[in-house]
Every structure is written in C-alpha cells, then in structure tokens.
Amino acid sequence: MKMVRLLIQVPEPIKARLDALRQEGTTASGFIRHLLEDHFKQAPIVSRKGG
C-alpha cells in the first residue's frame, strides 16, 4: 500500500504525551495510524450524494 504524508498540528499538551509514547518506543505516526485504522473499522460508511 502506498503511504502518503499528512501534516497535522496538535496542542502542546498532546505533543508532550506523544513524546512520552516515543520514549516507550511508539512513534507518533504509528500511534495515530493505529487510532485512525480502529476508527474507520468501527465507523459505518456514509455515502454522500450531491444534488
């Protein structure tokens, strides 16, 4: 699967928590990717039709 880059901004307290995860060996990218994959597995697919 081809990966693409996504640039996001987060508040400093969240960045500090991501940095703490990094100290435990989890990258911010890996953590966010995991959260997104879990979210989209659970969320129903909504179709939007223009008109």
Name its key features:
51 residues, mainly alpha, elongated
List the helices and strands and how they pair.
Blueprint: H1 12-23, H2 28-42
What does this structure look like?
With 51 residues, the protein is mostly helical. It contains two helices and no strands. The radius of gyration is 15 Å and the shape is elongated.
User: Which H/E pattern describes the elements?
Assistant: HH
Percent of residues in helices comes to 40-55%
What quaternary form is this? single chain
Main sheet makeup? none
Structural class comes to mainly alpha
Give the distance, in angstroms, between the N- and C-terminal Cα atoms. Answer: 33 Å
Number of helical segments with 4 or more residues: 2
Q: Kindly state the number of beta strands.
A: 0
Mean pLDDT: 89
DSSP strand content: under 5%
pLDDT < 50 runs, ≥5 residues:
none
Q: Globular, elongated, flat, extended or rod-shaped: what is the shape? A: elongated
> Radius of gyration, rounded?
15 Å
